[in-house]
Amino acid sequence: MTTTIAAGAAPALTGARRRRALRWIVFSASVVILIGVVVTSLTIGTRAVSLTDVWNALVAPVAGNVDHLVIRELRVPRTVIGIMAGAALALVGAVIQGVTRNPIADPGLLGINAGASLAVVVAISALGISNPDGYIWFAFVGAAVAAVVVFVIGSSGRDGATPVKLALTGAAVMATATPLITLLLISDLDTLNQYRFWSVGSLAGRELATAGALWPFLVVGLVLALLLGRRLNLLALGDDVARGLGERPAVTHVLAALAVVVLAGTATALAGPIALVGLVVPHVARRITGPDYRWILAYCLTLGPILLLVADVIGRVLVAPAELEVGIVVAFIGAPMLIAIVRRARLAGM
To answer: What are the CA-CA distances from residue 245 to residues 239, 241, 249 (Å)?
Structure first.
């Protein structure tokens, strides 16, 4: 009998090793793709620059060289910010979906984008701040406050933070913030003109100083999110089952809330309220890795920046010499993916 059990366990073990090896291979391929996309982001745009010029601009810049100036002052900042914002948006989407057990959850659903937008509108209209680098902190604080409100209210009561309560609280925050934003915008044309460029999401017009100011928050958020992988796996089984396995759902909710606050605030401050990245990327990662959140979160680190940088490059060349904001391109790329996700979910439900 022992021999029979061992014979049955061997194929299962071999299958698990193959899946793990395949995950590592695909993850390594995604890293290589990300490197290629970064190089593409530095070379392709309204002004084409050779790889040699890119390398020289990075290691031995020549004063007065226009190509070197374009690389160092324009493309390097937007590429760095694209990597940071893409990773943050994808991770926050995965964490929110894991905590709420809602496959269509993202920062917009929980009212986080609405909170950031309201804070930016107030900064522009009341304080006269017109530079994107000037109101990044308002976006960060607005997103953080909205996330805290949603998780505090959604966690109240005997049942704690249920998916329905969190979604309803997020909808309430969004319903409260949206009319206030509209009221401020229609009463001040200058505020509307400044806000409309930020609201669609963009990587342009940011400086490396912005990334330098926000990278510590990103690191904290990344660490928190990646440490949640095992906890989210248990939480996916339901709170009661998770408790039976020794997990404390309340602790997971608190840690997830901290990760969401930091990551959502950082991403929104860096690039504006870009939609669909936090919704689509975790689904793509889940299709590759399966339901294990440890792998889903790891894949989000590469797939999020890939999607955002590819969209940014497309936006540069699609209507050259003008540009499309990355938020618009992401919407065009992400919308068909979202439709496919919904259709697949409906078929699964049938």
So the answer is: 10, 6, 11
Residue 221's φ and ψ, nearest 5 degrees, are -65, -40
Residue at 271: amino acid letter: A
Q: What's the rounded mean pLDDT across residues 95-113?
A: 81
Q: How many residues does the chain have?
A: 350
Alpha carbons 258 and 151: distance in angstroms, whole number: 10
Task: Count CA atoms closer than 13 A to 182's CA, side-chain side.
Answer: 6
Q: In the 8-state DSSP scheme, what is residue 162?
A: -
Domain membership flag for residue 72 = yes
Where in the sequence is the domain holding 87, given as residue range(s)? Answer: 27-349
In a domain, 68, yes or no: yes
The CA distance from 213 to 144, in Å, is: 16
195 CB neighbour count, 10 Å cutoff: 22
Q: How many whole angstroms separate alpha carbon 147 and alpha carbon 12?
A: 42
Q: How far apart are CA 74 and CA 76, in angstroms?
A: 6
In contact, 270 and 208? CB cutoff 8 Å: no
As for how many domains the chain has, the answer is 1
Q: What is the CATH number of the domain that holds 318?
A: 1.10.3470.10
Q: Cα separation of 109 and 168, whole Å? A: 9
**Tokens found for residue 278:** 């936090």
Instruction: Supply the DSSP symbol for 321.
Output: T
How far lies 136's CA from each of 328, 332, 345, in Å?
A: 20, 26, 37
pLDDT tens, residue by residue, 177-210: 888 888 888 887 777 777 777 777 788 877 888 8
Put simply, whether the predicted model's pTM sits higher than 0.90 gets the answer no
Encoded amino acid at 236, one letter: A
DSSP annotation string for 289-318: H-S-HHHHHHHHHHHHHHHHHHHHHHHHHH
